[in-house]
Amino acid sequence: MGGTHRAGAALLLSMVLLAILPASALGQAGVNFQNVAAFVDFGKSVTFQAVVTSDTPVLEAVLTIKPQGVDPFLVPVSLDEIGAIVYTLDTQQTPLRAFTPVEYTYQLRLANGSNVTSPTYTFDYIDTRFAWLTLDSEAFEVNWYDREIAFGQLVMNTAVAGLDAVTNLLPVQQKQTIRIYVYNNAADLKAALSLKQSWVAGQSSPDLGVILLPIPDGDEARLELERKLPHELMHVMLFQLIGSKYINLPVWLVEGLASMAELYPNAEYTSVLNQTAAEDKLLPMESLCSHFPSDASGAFLAYAESASFVRYLHTTYGSSALRWLAEQYQNGLGCSEGLETALGSSLTQLEYRWKQNELRIDPESLIFRNLLPYLLIFGLLFGAAAAAIIISGRGTRRANAALTED
């Protein structure tokens, strides 16, 4: 049923475009665009082709390519003797994000001085290495390969449950269909994303409404889905709430909310937090405002801390307060300033309370640890001053003794 709706919407969009496009795009000056197409060889190239018929000679042709979410770029193209255009974009030199919708148009300059612009054409930069199977609804489009339809239904059911978990945690309404692509292993996904790091749990492109997941076949598939899919759904829904200001959100808030949404939470977070807290090696929350460590162990600790910290905020202030907090960063507030505006406390104050209430770190110990650097500096200064006084006193006594002898 979702496919029928999309087909109807595409037809309606085409009719609207025909109604609003300038006459020059629809054959003015005897110009027509035929056999227009774009062929994707994923990870390698996109080949654009068209045939232009014109009563007036074409002096110049330019192809404008606009992937969603980035600035358009223009490339000159040539027509052969029959008016055919064939241009190949090297996507290794000019990378495109996987599953990005791309718009493109042709602009012509004619010998009589007029300019002609073609209609706007579109294609999706799909991963063509696999024969994707699709199951869709109004809220989700689920895509997978080399597995039975029962797996696709499992993904759909998990997406529905995950969306419930997300909206219970952060009140937000879905604004667009979310596309989910499930790879059979991490290697296939890494190749699609051109990633270099050795680990990847999944990725979302919130502005595209696209989620990519590696879910190996086997007994753990359901648990992996219940952990990874709601996590990435939170990213997408946060973008639908905040829009382009999504990038202003503290990373600990984004990843903390995403980790909390997981239907099957990571059981190792608690033990890692307890051990790291006991060793006094927790990462300062301020260091997690703009980025996470790039190494796997550091990133894991950052995720664990963020999940625990945001859970504390949720328990203390509630879901509505978390939404209010997220909305503060639309105005360009800094990491701590957003917290002070929304919750009335600074990041330092909330971090202290979190460690005391969630991690059960002794308050006196916290105070001592926080004051220890200053105590060391004071001790060094005091010791240096005391030593100087002692040395000076000894010198004075010796001078006095010498005068007495004289």
Structural notes for this entry:
- With 406 residues, this protein is of the alpha+beta class.
- Among the domains are: 2-124, Immunoglobulin-like (Sandwich); 129-244, Glutaredoxin (3-Layer(aba) Sandwich).
- The chain is 46% helix and 20% strand.
- The chain contains 11 helices and 13 strands.
- The chain has helices spanning 2-20, 149-169, 186-193, 221-242, 251-261, 268-278, 296-317, 319-328, 335-343, 347-357, 363-405, and strands at 32-41, 45-53, 58-67, 73-77, 84-90, 101-110, 115-117, 121-124, 133-136, 140-144, 178-183, 203-205, 210-214.
- The strands form 3 sheets. Strands 3, 4, 6, 7 and 8 form a 5-stranded antiparallel β-sheet that branches. A 5-stranded mixed β-sheet has the order 9-10-11-13-12, sandwiched between helices.
- A hairpin with a 5-residue loop joins strand 3 (58-67) and strand 4 (73-77).
- Helix 2 (149-169) crosses helix 4, helix 5 (251-261) crosses helix 7 and helix 6 (268-278) crosses helix 7.
- The longest helix is centred in the last third of the chain and has 43 residues, at 363-405.
- The N and C termini lie far apart (114 Å).
- Mean pLDDT is 86; it is low at 1-27.
Tell me briefly what this model is.
The protein is of the alpha+beta class. 46% of the residues lie in helices and 20% in strands. Among the domains are: 123 residues, Immunoglobulins (Immunoglobulin-like); 116 residues, Glutaredoxin (3-Layer(aba) Sandwich).
The share of residues in helices is: 40-55%
In whole angstroms, how far apart are the ends?
Answer: 114 Å
The CATH class assignment of the domain at 2-124 is Mainly Beta
- Average predicted local confidence, pLDDT: 86
- Series of secondary-structure elements, N-terminal to C-terminal: HEEEEEEEEEEHEHEEHHHHHHHH
Tell me the CATH architecture of the domain at 2-124. Answer: Sandwich
Which structural class is indicated by helix and strand composition?
alpha+beta
Give the helix tally. Answer: 11
CATH superfamily of the domain at 2-124, by name, is Immunoglobulins
Radius of gyration, in Å, reads 30 Å
Q: Give the strand content.
A: 15-25%
